Amino acid sequence: MYIDYDVADRIATITLNRPEAANAQNAELLEELDQAWTRAATDNDVAVIILRAEGKHFSAGHDLKSNEPVPEKITLEDIYRIEARRYLEFSLRWRNVPKPSIAAVQGRCIAGGLLLAWPCDLIIAADDALFSDPVVAMGIGGVEYHGHTWELGPRKAKEILFTGRAVTATEAEQIGMVNRVVPRAELDTQARALAEHIATMPSFGLRQAKRAVNQTLDVQGFYAAIQSVFEIHQTGHGNALSVGGWPVLVNLDQMKTAIKKAD
User: Fold this and answer.
1) Structurally, how many domains does the chain consist of?
2) 3-state secondary structure at position 96
3) Which of 29, 80, 137, 176 could lock onto 2 through a cystine, CB 3.0 to 4.6 A?
């Protein structure tokens, strides 16, 4: 079990509990996480959802050391099928859960970690939080749920992708990617206090407010952009396959180097 789930006072708390691996996302963690989101979404006793993580880091992204077997010959169709489910469909489903959600982020939120935090309605960041997407070093233009332009703005998104550098919690607050920055020791209590306040509001009003904002973004092109950029993401994998390998395996060293440079 990599996910803990708890409900108290109309608040569901979903906890990533793989701290020994910096909450890196293997297949089991993501499947359990999706089940937890579905459970919270369908429980009438839940008004607000908190997504948090045990340990030093929120999530180091996709598990590049996963023991999941890789076929001797993997095709772009295989990669597309796996990633469409785990890294696109899941994130979009979590984004559209008809209840307010809050991500409480500490430490590293790297690449695939963004796919967990960005779908949440609100983000509370600890003062040690760092957000990065260094996958250009792997020959890929950004992670699968490509919310970069919407979350960072176009020029900042390009800077972060081109350089691989991390965005600090303070900078993320300044550009509107996170709602507030709090001391690390207060992260859980501050997220909980916010959730408790929101939970006092009428559930139908909260649903309608969330739907209004999300639909406004979709009318502006968010949903179509996420879908179309996923196709661009897959061309990175196709290019890697054409020159001899699956990018997670071929470019692991480049990815590690990019993460170190972003520190």
Assistant:
1) 1
2) coil
3) 29
